[in-house]
Amino acid sequence: TSRKPIIAIDGPAGAGKSTVTKRVAHKLGLLFLDTGAMYRSITLAVLREGLDLRNQEQVTAIANASKIQLFNNPVAEQPMRVLLNGEDITTAIRSPEVTANVSAIAAQPAVRAILVKQQQAIGANGGVVMEGRDIGTHVFPDAEVKIFLTASAKERANRRYADLIAQGQIPPDLTTLEHEISERDRQDSTRTHAPLTQAANATLVNTDGLSIDEVVATIINLYEEKVQQP
Ligand code: CDP
Ligand code: CDP
Question: Global pTM?
Answer without folding.
Answer: 0.96
